Amino acid sequence: FGTFQRIAAENNVELMEQLVDYCLTILYNEVVGDAPAAKLLNLAVEHIADLAASYMVAGFVHGVLNTDNINITGESFDYGPWRFTEYWDSRFTAAYFDQNGLYAFGRQAESMHWNLGQLAVSLRLICEASPLIEALERFPALYQAAIVRRFLWRRAVAPRGEESDRALVQAAEQAMVQAHIPVDAFFISHFAGDRPGTYADDEHYDLFADQLAKYTPAVATKAINRADLQCSMLIGEVEQIWDAIATHDDWEPLSTKIAQIRKMGAALG
């Protein structure tokens, strides 16, 4: 997004038009057509709403979620001091310098929406405000829909309808918080609708378990080795892997972790 911001700051209309056309035709394989800037922003909103949802469902926390760290096709990079949160904690941050929680786990969708707003401001160089505002206003609904879809995917259960699915996601979030269940353990334990014993005597967990019982598996669970799903990447593991390399030039822990990740990927298909 920073590329667009720089061109806007330079007030270079011709270059902005060229960049928008390039992004639509080359990166998105779209016909330019009318209102190309608004069309591009709509595509970016769709992809970045899904990106934000992917972070949340994975428990991933970007360290420095600025406009220069997201690109127009909905991918992110330059993670800085990234982390995976162990618990569903909206206040969890990855960066030691993020004292005010600007990029906290629970604020990532807000940050990405703000970044899209800065992109829209840049595109005002070649587009009226109204269609750009309409594109930005699509973000919340797209994000919520992506959260539900990705939650169900990670649980490997089939959808039952928008109202039921949203209620299940909300109950799951409350259960993880109230019963203090680690995120990875929660999804593994409930993979494909499994209902293990309660983690705690907690009404929120019981509510979630009751709702989950209505769902059917979306995958053939007998073919999946559940042990292959038990793979995390918390900062303690990362530091141990790095310490082995930095201290002893020992790359075996890294190779082992990569193999575990590939096994999990194969199990999930």
Question: Which terms summarize this structure?
Answer:
single chain; globular; two-stranded antiparallel ribbon; 269 residues
Written overview of the protein:
The chain has helices spanning 2-9, 13-27, 36-58, 108-123, 129-136, 139-155, 162-178, 183-189, 203-212, 235-248, 252-268; strands spanning 60-61, 83-84. It has 11 helices and 2 strands; from the N terminus they run αααββαααααααα. It has a two-stranded antiparallel sheet. The model has no long low-confidence stretch (mean pLDDT 92). It has 269 residues and is an all-alpha fold. The two termini are 32 Å apart. 57% of the residues lie in helices and 1% in strands.
Summarize the structure.
The chain is an all-alpha fold and about 270 residues long.
Indicate the overall shape.
globular
Poorly predicted residue ranges: none
State the strand order across the main sheet: 1-2
Overall mean pLDDT = 92
Distance, first to last CA: 32 Å
Rg result: 21 Å
Query: How much beta, percentage-wise?
Result: under 5%
Query: How many helices?
Result: 11
Could you state the order of secondary-structure elements as H and E?
A: HHHEEHHHHHHHH
> How would you classify the helix and strand content by structural class?
mainly alpha
Structure summary, number of beta strands: 2
Secondary structure: elements and pairs:
Blueprint: H1 2-9, H2 13-27, H3 36-58, E1 60-61, E2 83-84, H4 108-123, H5 129-136, H6 139-155, H7 162-178, H8 183-189, H9 203-212, H10 235-248, H11 252-268
